[in-house]
Amino acid sequence: MDYLLILELAVNGVFVGLMYALVALGMVLIYKTSGIANLAQGALAMTGAYMAWMVSGPLGIPIWLAVPVAVAGMFGLGAATERLALRRMIGQPVIMAIMLTLGIEIMLRGLLPGFAGSAVKRLDIGIPGTPLFIGDLLINRSTMIGGAVSLAMIVLSLFLFNSRLGVVMRAVSDDQTASWAVGIRVERAIAISWGLAAASATIAGVMWGATQGVDWSLSLLLIKALAIAILGGLDSIPGVLIAGLIVGVAESVATGVLDPLVGGGTRDVVASVIILLTLLLKPHGLFGREHIERI
After folding, report:
1. Which of 47, 96, 165, 290 is deepest in the core (most CB within 10 A)?
2. How far apart are CA 287 and CA 110, in angstroms?
3. b/e per residue, 76-93, with b = 16+ CB within 10 A?
């Protein structure tokens, strides 16, 4: 066995897993405040990447300004989605709200490529394309920078949840009725969580778009994000970080080791297997809280 190859795959998998984790972060933010699993997160990442491309390409705005514009625009889109769509689901079964997010995912997955064209769009954010060697290890420079940015955003979200806004969001997560009773604007907190989820998805979408181009396939990040959110725990931000590393390394190593043996395709199987095993063995994830209801 080539241990150097395994190490190289694992190191690159760490960076890939961090980029996946940034997408999953949005799912956790929404679940922590509203108790809804957002199945539109992959499409939000795709939409954010398309928005950055449109602002920097057809509109000609420099990329260093286009990305913040896209992040701000997607924050507004996320908050508007909660206000105009999800808020109408108040009083309905939770499954109806989850199905609505899936509908948004499917709609955006078809709408954006139809509007902007299905060809892969090049998104240049200034990352050099030359390979990077650390000793004998070949590192993907794009995923390394994307992983570093993702790690910074996840750490920043931990500080956010210890701020005044974070206390409000945690209170809404624990008991919405009690939060209303003490004067917390629950709807506003949930809308902010949707905005933050869309903003984090946009940053992840831009990093992935710079790595592989911008097209509809970015929406498939939903499966990776879902695997990470379930494994780490839908209400745990540290769990997102740990689970992202696990999923990224497992996927990268499986691709490098098993693909030559089975003819390819293991990259898409790993996330599905992790979802299945987690739900069967530890339904609340590694760090998720177990909610016990009396009936």
Report:
1. 47
2. 35
3. ebbbebbeebbeebeeee
* Interval 214-235: pLDDT, tens: 999 999 999 999 999 999 999 8
Read off the pLDDT of residues 157-213 as tens digits, 9 standing for 90 and up.
988 877 888 788 778 877 777 888 888 888 889 999 999 999 999 999 999 999 999
DSSP-derived letter for residue 88 is G
The answer to the question of residue 91 being in a domain is yes
For the chain, how many structural domains are there in total? 1
Per-residue pLDDT band at 292 (split at 50, 70, 90)? very low
**AA identity, residue 33:** T
Nearest alpha carbon to residue 22 among 127, 136, 118, 157? 157
**CA distances for 51 relative to 83, 107, 116, 192, angstroms:** 21, 16, 10, 20
Say whether pTM exceeds 0.90: yes
Q: Which two tokens stand for residue 113?
A: 């490529």
Q: How far apart are CA 255 and CA 263, in angstroms?
A: 10
Domain assignment of residue 241, yes or no: no
Per the rule left: phi > 0, alpha: psi between -120 and 50, beta: everything else, 185 is beta
Q: The tokens 């989605």 sit on which residue?
A: 81
For the chain, the residue count is 295
DSSP 122-148: P---S---S-EEETTEEE-HHHHHHHH
Question: What range does the domain containing 144 cover?
Answer: 22-219
Residue 73's alpha-carbon distances to 70, 155, 177, 202, in angstroms, are: 5, 23, 31, 10
- Residue 168 CB coordination number (10 Å): 18
Percent of the chain with pLDDT over 90: 64
Q: Is residue 47 part of a domain?
A: yes
Q: What residue type is assigned to position 110 of the chain?
A: G
